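Subject: for your reference before the review

Hello V.,

The reviewers asked for a structural picture of the protein, and I figured it would be easier to keep everything in one thread rather than splitting it across files. Below is the amino acid sequence we used in the manuscript, unchanged from the supplementary table.
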Amino acid sequence: MRSSDGESGGRMRRRDVLRNAAAPILALLCALLVSAEPALALTPSSTTVMAAVGAAGQGTAITVLVSGGDKPGGTVTVSFGDGATDPPVPLANGSATVIHIYAGPGSYSVTVSYSGDDTFAPSTGIGIATVNFYP
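And here is what came back from the structure prediction:
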């Protein structure tokens, strides 16, 4: 016959062993949580799209300015409003200029997406490219 004291004593010992093994792990996790560096907030950015008036069949210049204090880095992706999208273009001193050839005259909504960088948050800008008929 087993005594209730012997059985519970065995369980207590196993429980104490588990508790003793878990204590250092919990202490390490708590130390990591307390010492974690807070995430730095990104500076807001603003994307401005300036499109020149162009002629159908010829190149129309689209200039993109990204501002937010200092000169942002990163890339911009330009969607020209006619179904075409260029691959990402790197910014130089916060700006980029791309040339696009529109097939026909009209007003095209140009959307530019700024990727953001280590300092500046992503942003989007919209502008209108006006393309005239070219005889």
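For the response letter, the relevant points are probably these. The chain has two domains: 1-36, 46-132. The chain has a mean pLDDT of 80.

Happy to draft the paragraph if you're swamped.

O.
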